[in-house]
Automatic annotation (TrEMBL):
Protein's recorded name: DHA2 family efflux MFS transporter permease subunit
Membrane topology according to the record: Multi-pass membrane protein
Subcellular localization(s) per the UniProt record: Cell membrane
Gene Ontology CC, one term: plasma membrane
Pfam families: MFS_1
Regions annotated as coiled coil: none
Major place of residence: membrane
Every Major facilitator superfamily (MFS) profile domain range: 21-483
Length: 508
């Protein structure tokens, strides 16, 4: 069959409602990403209202992180086995109900339970959303545009969460940071029922790998909890070390099992492709750095500069704008013409330059000369790099692996976020303490010294973020080897598919 005939046949087979479907998929993704930061802003109010101790407040974040991070691979495989559209709708309904429980919480147990349930249904929803995008958009140019929108939301949603969380907490009540998810979920679920049509040929009919589910989920829970514990305890504390050792053992056993079973939870072919593996690693490292930026710039603005939550959220808007431009106007427009490596490397280097500007932060830094330029550079760089990285991480997989390949994108970002929060917080705290101890003898104003020490700690952590982003650029340069341009024809099923089933997908 001539290539142009194959292309036209593939185009005619595409879902005519796919662009409408993108709206509801993007809305669901925005809700999940918002939730990562919107609750952080509400934490002090919720803690005070429900009488939660300082020692226990971490569970507002940790309960969600453990359930979400631990169950992502399971959620991705469930969507492959039972259908992505069904998993997407169930995830939305469950997330909305869990959010309603959180907003109505009368004590800390109810709040922790709601956060864990949000994590459970988020782990089903997030991979389903990304894998729906993967199977609905197979044409190169259309896929680039769709992933441009998705990448912009994935990057900018956390910053939008700071703004929305601040506004809801300041002007309404902390409970609305939970209730706000309900209309998001309702609209997205209704749209999914009416609009989204999943291709029938993409579902996996194999059985569920129970040993893989148990080992993979427990291994990821141990890893995420190890980093969460290290942030609040100590890296050498017995419980923390035990968690990391358990994670290594469980994940090693997981890999052994996955290499032997007939229908693995995570087929190792998904990871061993150098382009996908490189994309996961680059995204994971960048997530470490990005979480650090949100964390320390938020602390700096609210504690040192006394910004309100709303003003803090507004201060992040240049980063949001940069991510949207980088993802939709740079990444999406160029990804079909140049190799993804040639977008990812400059993107991560631009973000690293933004991090370098941020190291100039001091006690009375000008927002317009230091913070705003750094945020614009970070947004542009990460938006430009994330778009091709997320697309490449889910491209050319077998349709039956789309869910679990999408789950791995979320795993890399979730584990990266857990590492970033724990590692960079520890670095900042150590640098803050050392600076304060070294300068206390000659200090005339202890309050000023306290703030100076904090800013010194933040910039020490930001320097690490700079080198981590350089690491993402190096990984992209070394591991990503697809060439750019063109609309080559490859099998619809990706690896190992029959050659007579032809659709256009991105070729690099």
């Amino acid at each position: 069959m001539p290539p142009e005939t194959a292309v036209s046949k593939a185009h005619s087979a595409l879902d005519p409602s796919r662009w409408k479907a993108l709206i509801f998929i993007a809305l669901a993704q925005l809700m999940v990403v918002l939730d990562a930061t919107i609750v952080n802003i509400a934490m002090p109010s919720a803690q005070s209202d429900l009488g939660i101790s300082d020692g226990n407040r971490q569970w507002i974040i940790t309960a969600y992180a453990l359930a979400f991070g631990g169950l992502l691979l399971f959620g991705g495989r469930i969507s492959d086995l039972w259908g992505r559209r069904r998993a997407f709708i169930i995830g939305l309904i469950g997330f909305a109900l869990a959010s309603a429980l959180g907003g109505a919480a009368q004590n800390e147990a109810m709040l922790y339970a709601s956060r864990a349930l949000q994590g459970v249904f988020g782990a089903l929803l997030a991979p389903a959303a990304l894998s729906l995008l993967t199977v609905l958009f197979t044409d190169a140019k259309e896929r680039a545009k769709a992933f441009g929108v998705f990448g912009a939301i994935a990057g900018a949603g956390a910053a939008v969460g700071l703004l929305l969380g601040g506004a809801l907490t300041d002007y309404l009540d902390w409970r609305w940071t939970f209730f706000v998810n309900i209309p998001f979920a309702a609209v997205a679920a209704l749209g999914a029922v009416l609009v989204i049509r999943e291709p029938n040929t993409t579902r996996d009919g194999s059985s569920l790998d129970i040993p893989g589910v148990v080992l993979g989920s427990l291994g990821l829970v141990a890893l995420v909890y190890g980093f969460a514990r290290a942030e609040h305890e100590d890296w050498t504390e017995v419980g923390t070390v035990a968690m990391f050792v358990s994670a290594v053992v469980l994940l090693a056993l997981f890999v052994i099992v996955e290499a032997r079973v007939k229908s693995p939870l995570l087929p190792l072919r998904v990871l061993t492709d150098r382009n996908r593996g490189g994309s996961y690693a680059a995204l994971g490292l960048a997530s470490i750095a990005m979480f650090g930026v949100f964390l320390f710039v938020t602390y700096y603005l609210q504690i040192v500069r006394d910004y309100s939550p709303v003003r803090t959220g507004i201060a992040f808007l240049p980063m949001v704008a940069g991510m949207i431009i980088g993802s939709t106007q740079i990444g999406a427009r160029l990804v079909t013409r140049v190799a993804p490596r040639n977008l990812m490397v400059p993107g991560f280097l631009t973000a690293a330059l933004g991090m370098l500007v941020l190291t100039r932060m001091n006690l009375d830094s000008s927002y317009t000369s230091v913070l705003m330029p750094s945020m614009v550079l970070l947004g542009l760089g990460l938006g430009t790099a994330f778009m091709p990285a997320m697309s490449l991480a889910t491209e050319n997989v077998r349709p039956s692996d789309a869910g679990v390949a999408s789950a791995m994108v979320n795993v890399s970002q979730q584990v990266g976020g857990a590492i970033g929060t724990a590692l960079l917080n520890t670095i900042a705290a150590s640098a803050t303490t050392a600076y304060f101890t070294d300068h206390i003898a000659g200090a005339t104003d202890e309050q000023t010294l306290t703030f100076e020490s904090m800013v010194h700690g933040y910039t020490a952590a930001v320097w690490w973020g700079f080198f981590i982003l350089l690491g993402s650029a190096v990984i992209s340069a070394v591991l990503i080897n697809r060439k750019g341009g063109g609309h080559a024809q490859v099998a619809a099923g990706g690896e190992g598919a029959e050659a007579d089933t032809v659709v256009p997908v991105m070729a690099h």
